[in-house]
Amino acid sequence: MNNKGYVTIFISMVLVVMLVVALAVIRINRQSYARTKASTSLSSAMSGELANYNRYIFDRYHILLLDKNANGAGEGSLEQAVENSLSFDLGEEFSVNSVELAGITGIVDDDCSEFKRQIKQNFKYEVAEYTIEKIMNKTNGEDDPVDQETIQDIDNQISNEQAGISENDDGSQSSDEENDDEKKKKKEEDPRKTLKKFTDAGIANLLLPSDADLSSNIVSENGLPSDLSSGSVFTPIRTDFKDMDTMELDSIGANGWSSSLVTDAEAITYAGQYFNCLTDKRYDDTYLNLEMEYILAGEKDDNANYKKVVDEILMVRFGFNTAYILTDVTKMARCEALAAAISSAAPIMQPVVKFLLAGCWAYIESVADVYRLVRNHKVPYIKTSETWLTDFNSLSNLESLSNGSADEEEGLGYKEYLMILMALTGKEKYYRMLDLMQMNANHNSTSSYRIGIKDCITAFGIDAEIVYDGRTFALHEEAGY
């Protein structure tokens, strides 16, 4: 009997231990289940918020952005939305103590690194590479037509020619020679004076096509990603052509774009695909019509952006036209003869005037180039005697230079020049693209709420405290596009 009692006690103790273990396992499983459910629910709630991306910006530009203010609900609305979703998913068995943001990644953070990443991920590099490769092939990668060596050669030539001018040439002419010079001066008007008449009236206005569609909207700098903080790449060319140093600096002002064109190939081609310009209006519902021009210039209206971009393209063309005219013996002989007539009272200045006149003529050719470009014609990147269009008097008859079919022309078009200029625009181009997205999203919004891209994020973290059956779980989750 005693043995049977011991066995009964032993079996009872084993059963009690097994029951305790079973209850502990059940409790542990319940706690594990509760943590898993809480973590899953938190991830689900955050994914649900990511689904509230701005549909207009995604559909138009293929960029994912989440407004952390929940489309106008205000600060803390994201945490509140996650908390509400958690409470609904977890049910009455759970209670949510707190939900707090634990780090966000904004689209403009770190010089728009998230924007750059999405462009790289969502835009096919093969397409960008092909477009940039086409520009590089057309230009042979030549981005310094007038370099420091060329400038030094010009300066040396001027010095040598001035050294060869005798004192007798410097103001001691006979009366017959003076009379001949007076006749030449009457016949040969300084083309720089003629150019001044056109530049005083505004070269950009002279070039603007009559059918150009410029928006009347004005950009407000309040809340824009860029804050309109930077202007255009270049200052305008000095068109009086009185100073060699200034002309030489202008001739190299647009050098050095080719490496950046390749480095920023995706962003530059992305801008060309998704934004309007003067000669390629893809969308009719934009706040500004000259969007690529805005990316380059950052001014407050289409007209101002157009004028700045005209100055920039003139700078590019001026360098190449100057480089060519210096090699054209016939044109330089024309400049020399004209310089002799203009400088008859001071022959020592003739070599300088010759090169200044060559610069003046190169600028006139550049104006003719841009006149054609803004009318959707192509312009040869490097000129020849056959493709040179102008003489000193051509500004009064530019319309005669835009004949012919653009489809049959070789060279670069207006939009391709904008892409070259974009290679000379640093990080500002990313902020200004975001400016345009914000302006267009708000311009086309049917609600009173206005999105601010500075408040938009692409990733965020959440710290949450959730209570289940008397136990508090501290959770951290991260989510992003």
Describe the structure.
- This protein is of the alpha+beta class.
- Helices cover 55% and strands 8% of the residues.
- It has 18 helices and 4 strands.
- Strands 1, 2, 3 and 4 form a 4-stranded antiparallel sheet that branches.
- β3 and β4 form a beta hairpin.
- α1 packs antiparallel against α3 and α6 runs antiparallel to α16.
- 38% of the residues are buried.
- About 2% of the residues have low confidence.
List the helices and strands and how they pair.
Blueprint: H1 2-50, H2 55-61, E1 66-67, H3 77-90, E2 94-106, H4 109-122, H5 125-139, H6 148-163, H7 175-187, H8 191-201, H9 203-207, H10 244-251, H11 258-263, H12 265-274, H13 291-297, H14 302-325, H15 329-342, H16 350-373, H17 414-423, H18 428-443, E3 456-468, E4 471-480
Helix pairs in contact: 1-3, 5-12, 6-16, 12-17, 13-14, 13-18, 14-16, 15-16
Please provide a brief summary of the model.
The chain has helices at residues 2-50, 55-61, 77-90, 109-122, 125-139, 148-163, 175-187, 191-201, 203-207, 244-251, 258-263, 265-274, 291-297, 302-325, 329-342, 350-373, 414-423, 428-443; strands at residues 66-67, 94-106, 456-468, 471-480. The chain is α+β, with helices and mostly antiparallel strands and 481 residues long. The protein is elongated, with a radius of gyration of 35 Å.
